[in-house]
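=== RUN LOG ===
request id: a7f3
mode: sequence -> structure
chains: 1
length: 190
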Amino acid sequence: MSEAQPGPDGRLRCPWALSAPEYIDYHDREWGQPVTDVVGLYERLSLEAFQSGLSWITILRKRESFRSAFAGFDPETVAQFDADDFARLMADPGIVRNRAKINATIANAQVVVELGARFPELIWAHQVVGRPRPTGADWRATSPESVALARELKRAGIRFVGPTTAYALMQAVGLIDDHLIDCFVPPISP
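=== RESULT ===
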C-alpha cells in the first residue's frame, strides 16, 4: 500500500479505495466506522468470512443479494434456517455459493443468538486504542489483537474466522483505525 492518493474529488484516500467506484463510498462512509449492534456485527463477520479467498469488491457487489438471502443478517432468523433454506442459498447466483461458508454463516447465527449482548462485548473487548494511523509502509494483515479476537470467537463457537479475517473485521467495524495517516476520513474517536 502506498501513501494516500487523490480521488476523483481531489481528497486524499487510502489507495485501495480508488481501484473501483464501489470502494469510494464504502471507504468514505463505512470502513472503519464503529459498528456496535448485533445485526451489524454479524453481517460484517459473515461478509468477511465469505470474502476469504476472494476480492472484497466481489462481496461489495453482491452485498444486497447477501442481505436478501440471509434475511437482512438478522441472526434470530438465520439461526432457524433449515435444509430448504440451505438448498435455496446454494442455488442463489446472487451470493457466493460455498457450502462451508453458508454452513458457517447459519451456525454462526446460532452462536450469536446464544451470546446475545455478549457478542458485541466479545468483539469490542479487542479494540485497539492509541495506535497511530499507519503510513503506506505500515500495512499489515494481522495483529496480536486479531489473533486474540479470532481465538475468542472460535472459543465461543464461531466458524470460518482466523486472524486475517478477524483483522479485516476489526478494520471494517472500527476496532482499529487503519485509514492512512494522510487520508481525509476523520480519525475514529475511542
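=== NOTES ===
The chain is about 50% helix and 0% strand.
Residues 126 and 149 are 6 Å apart (CA to CA).
=== END ===
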